[in-house]
Specification:
- Helix content is 30%, strand content 24%.
- The chain has 378 residues and is of the alpha+beta class.
- Strands 7, 8, 9, 10, 11, 12, 13, 14 and 15 form a 9-stranded antiparallel beta sheet that branches. The chain has a 4-stranded antiparallel beta sheet with strand order 3-6-4-5, sandwiched between helices. Strands 1-2 form a two-stranded parallel ribbon.
- A hairpin with a 4-residue loop joins strand 11 and strand 12.
- The longest helix is centred in the middle third of the chain and has 18 residues.
- It binds adenosine-5'-diphosphate.
- The site of adenosine-5'-diphosphate has 18 residues, from strand 4 and strand 12.
Length: 378
């Protein structure tokens, strides 16, 4: 697996019962997965020679992030290394411009969008969407097409004057209408090279300051009709783009009952962490199976409700005290910490809770995450 973050750490964990030799390419020895994996290569994934050296002896290569240059992946494939997902699929998770163009081509509902060249062009894009209500079409969302994550590389702009910053990096900029959504959903599926696919229940994902905070599985009060539509959409995208492994389709649910695709991730995803404790087969275990072209595991939930809350680094680095409190209070709680240094705002772990009563399950997860973070003290 290329990348040494928490996704690699948890994918490695899922490979252990299968006796899979797991090798990672990590930026530093301190990265989450580098601390635990048996074979660790420290190196730069942007360097083709490093990638080639890393790939030697690997049966298959997969990723914990989407930042490996597409041309390097093509070079690895040309060397005969199976790359899953392959570059032609992965480019849709790497480049938001390519993703929007392709999804529109295959008739997948997306927010109104186009590539914009400068602030004046942003104003023109806004004007094209100016409503009958007399509005000027602002606010507009601007996104750098590559390199963004956790809300970085995304700007909400209310005027032409505010639209300068996104162009400073010299990366193409995608403009999107600001969708008036009621909530964000994620439709997560896993697909194998054989073409077998499984769909997890559609979840609700709540963000705070652009970072995923809480995931509820299944999404509360989502109709069977909409949930089925979202799952079918994700399965269709995976088939059309020939995705291998876990695919997260981030969705907006609009007030008038539509679902629009926000973005795609072709790797295990934060919106699927609940599956570790809440589904028969976790996203990590199924990603491993898919990448190895093994039959996929049952994606169904184990409990009526599962809630995942991220633990963000706060001012409370004493994890032992946190564990004492949380484990004593809630014996069913599942804690997953990533071995990262605690820094304010950084995702350092998550908790999963499950049960029959959503309010109670939510309260337990929030309490534990808040306590571990240091925002709740009793
Ligand atoms: P990232 O690559 O950082 O995950 P996203 O494209 O998912 O970037 O955007 C981050 C967040 O910004 C989304 O989760 C959503 O809350 C908000 N957002 C993104 N695009 C839109 C849009 N077109 N309309 C409204 N909100 C949006």
């Amino acid at each position: 697996m290329v990348g040494g973050g928490q996704l690699a750490r948890m994918t490695h964990e899922a490979g252990i019962p299968l006796g899979i030799r797991f090798k990672i390419l990590s930026d530093t020895p301190q990265d989450s997965a580098a601390q635990v994996a048996g074979e660790v290569v420290i190196g730069d994934y942007r360097d083709l020679d490093t990638l080639r050296e890393f790939a030697r002896g690997c049966d298959v290569i997969t990723f914990d992030h989407e930042h490996v240059p597409t041309e390097h992946l093509r070079a690895l494939e040309a060397d005969g290394v199976p790359v899953r997902p392959g570059p032609d699929a992965l480019v849709h998770a790497q480049d938001k411009g390519v993703m929007r163009a392709r999804l529109s081509e295959i008739g997948v509902p997306c927010p109104r969008h186009r590539i914009v060249t400068d602030p004046a062009d942003v104003a023109a894009f806004a004007a094209e969407g100016a409503g009958a209500d007399g509005g000027d079409g602002f606010p507009v969302i601007l996104k750098t097409v590559r390199g963004g994550y956790d809300g970085k590389g995304v700007w909400f702009v209310r005027s032409e004057a505010e639209a300068r910053d996104p162009f400073l990096a010299g990366v193409p900029v995608l403009a999107e209408e600001k969708v008036d959504f009621v909530r964000e959903l994620a439709a997560n599926i896993v697909r194998s090279p054989h073409g077998q696919a499984v769909a997890y229940p559609v979840v609700e994902s709540r963000q705070v300051d652009g970072v995923c905070d809480t995931v509820i599985a299944p999404a509360p009060e989502l109709s069977d009709e909409l949930s089925g539509r979202a799952q079918e959409l994700a399965l269709r995208i995976a088939r059309e783009l020939d995705v291998t492994g876990h695919l997260a389709v981030e969705l907006f649910e609009t007030r008038d009952g539509r679902i629009l695709v926000n973005e795609l991730a072709m790797r295990p995803h934060n919106s699927g962490h609940w599956t570790q404790d809440g589904a028969v087969t976790s996203q990590f275990a199924n990603h491993v199976r898919a990448v190895l072209d093994l039959p996929l595991g049952d994606p169904r939930p184990r409990a009526p409700w599962t809630v995942m809350v991220n633990v963000l680094g706060g001012d409370y680095p004493d994890m032992y005290q946190g564990y004492l409190h949380c484990m004593a209070r809630d014996p069913q709680l599942k804690i997953h910490m990533y071995g990262k240094d605690v820094k304010p705002g950084r995702k350092v772990g998550h908790v999963n809770t499950y049960g029959d009563d959503l309010d109670e399950v939510l309260e337990r997860a929030r309490h534990a995450a808040g306590y571990l973070r240091g925002t709740i003290v009793e």
